């Protein structure tokens, strides 16, 4: 139970893919012109993360080391196809809005990163909740950016045609364009740093990954655990 709680906490806060690890920036900046788009993209990625993590963990002892990345991509692509067909059948408007970014989930670095660093080295239940935590963290990040962009750029909330502001409010149309995504992400990251929250710029407090696994002392970091495991395997092979 403790490990499950840890995986959820890491995905939502300590290793949040959007605000801490800064992964998956392409869909984060491209599809968050509205909150609904962010929710749809986030939940689609979450579904693929959960299923691919679970499957890769179940097959981790059967996938040869030399072909693990192609195997991971085949597994992820299979689940992305399932999600894509379901969205096309039941939420066609969202499917048309997200467009090419749904099949591009296959090469999302969050999914492949979790497959390589966690699911391939841990039991199925922990891997499932790792995917759930990371997916929900990604969804929250996309939704927050989408809410701010939609409020300022369109003056609406969750696509409802009910004005949020008074008639005197003038929408900032640039917020629903590409530059608006960068601006909102920068502002949210600045707020994280201001309030000492986990963020990619808060390395002083040990929240973000510096990339130097050799000198890292964070025993709770899944990337560090994966690095140490690989080192142990290499030393044993010698």
List the helices and strands and how they pair.
Blueprint: H1 2-14, H2 25-30, H3 35-58, H4 68-90, H5 92-98, H6 109-117, H7 124-154, H8 178-194, H9 222-237
Helix pairs in contact: 1-7, 3-4, 3-6, 3-7, 4-5, 4-6, 7-8
Distance between the termini: 37 Å
Helix percent reads 55-70%
Number of helical segments with 4 or more residues: 9
Task: Label the structural class.
Answer: mainly alpha
Q: How many strands, which pairing sense, and closed or not: the largest β-sheet?
A: none
Tell me the fraction of residues in β-strands, as a range.
under 5%
Q: What spatial form do the alpha-carbon principal axes imply?
A: globular
Computed CA radius of gyration, to the nearest angstrom: 19 Å
Domain module tally:
1
Uncertain regions spanning at least 5 consecutive residues: 204-208
Number of E-type strands: 0
What's the rounded overall pLDDT mean? 82
> Topology as H/E string?
HHHHHHHHH
Explain what this protein looks like in three dimensions.
The chain is mainly alpha-helical and 238 residues long. It has one domain (2-201). The chain is built from nine helices and no strands. It has helices at 2-14, 25-30, 35-58, 68-90, 92-98, 109-117, 124-154, 178-194, 222-237. Helix 3 (35-58) packs across helix 4, helix 3 (35-58) runs parallel beside helix 6 and helix 4 (68-90) crosses helix 6. It is globular and about 70 Å long. The two termini are 37 Å apart.
């Amino acid at each position: 139970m403790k490990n499950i709680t840890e995986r959820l906490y890491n995905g939502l806060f300590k290793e949040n893919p959007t605000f801490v690890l800064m992964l998956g920036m392409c869909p984060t900046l491209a599809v968050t012109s509205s909150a609904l788009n962010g929710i749809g993209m986030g939940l689609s990625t979450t579904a693929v993360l959960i299923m691919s993590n679970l499957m890769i963990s179940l097959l981790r002892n059967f996938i040869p080391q030399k072909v693990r990345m192609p195997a991971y991509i085949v597994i992820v692509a299979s689940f992305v196809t399932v999600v894509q067909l379901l969205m096309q059948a039941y939420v066609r408007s969202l499917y048309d809005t997200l467009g090419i970014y749904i099949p591009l989930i296959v090469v999302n670095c969050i999914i492949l990163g979790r497959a390589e660093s966690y699911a391939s080295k841990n039991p199925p239940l922990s891997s499932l909740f790792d995917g759930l935590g990371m997916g929900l963290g990604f969804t929250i990040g996309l939704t927050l950016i989408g809410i701010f962009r939609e409020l300022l750029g369109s003056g609406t909330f969750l696509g409802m045609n009910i004005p949020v502001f008074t008639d005197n409010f003038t929408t900032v149309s640039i917020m629903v364009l590409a530059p608006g995504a960068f601006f909102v992400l920068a502002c949210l990251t600045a707020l994280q740093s201001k309030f000492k929250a986990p963020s990619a710029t808060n390395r002083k407090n040990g929240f973000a990954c510096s990339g130097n696994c050799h000198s890292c002392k964070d025993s709770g970091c899944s990337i560090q655990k994966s690095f140490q495991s690989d080192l142990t395997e290499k030393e044993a092979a010698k």
